[in-house]
TrEMBL record:
GO biological-process terms attached to the record: regulation of DNA-templated transcription
Pfam families linked: RHH_1 (PF01402)
Organism: Pseudoalteromonas caenipelagi
Spans traversing the lipid bilayer: none
Sequence segments annotated as region (Disordered): 1-28
Domain Ribbon-helix-helix protein CopG residue range list: 51-89
Protein name: LexA regulated protein
UniProt gene name: ybfE
Compositionally biased tracts (Basic and acidic residues): 1-20
Length: 92
């Protein structure tokens, strides 16, 4: 029987090392957890009708956006979306 990293039901068959301390709450390695979490986040975003846009900015602009978002109690993403919507509204 081959071991699958995403197999949650038979993971106990492959547990060969018991360590002291708090038991793991997730049997998957951290790298796999991150991939699963990212995949689930993308699915949630798609279900909400969101599209992903990625771009690079200077560290000064990044910090200015972060500061402005903190001042307005918004996420940086929400702030950028607001700025883009205002710009599009002004160009119509």
């Amino acid at each position: 029987m081959a071991k699958s990293e995403t197999d949650r039901t038979t993971i106990d068959l492959f547990e060969n090392e018991k360590r002291p301390g708090r038991p793991k709450t997730n049997p998957l390695p951290r790298e796999v957890q991150l991939k699963v979490n990212k995949r689930n986040q993308i699915k949630r975003d798609r279900a909400r009708g969101l599209k992903r846009v990625e771009f690079k900015v200077s560290s000064e602009l990044y910090q200015a956006l972060s500061d402005m978002a903190d001042e307005q109690n918004l996420s940086r993403s929400a702030l950028i979306e607001t700025i883009l919507q205002e710009k599009l509204a002004n160009n119509r």
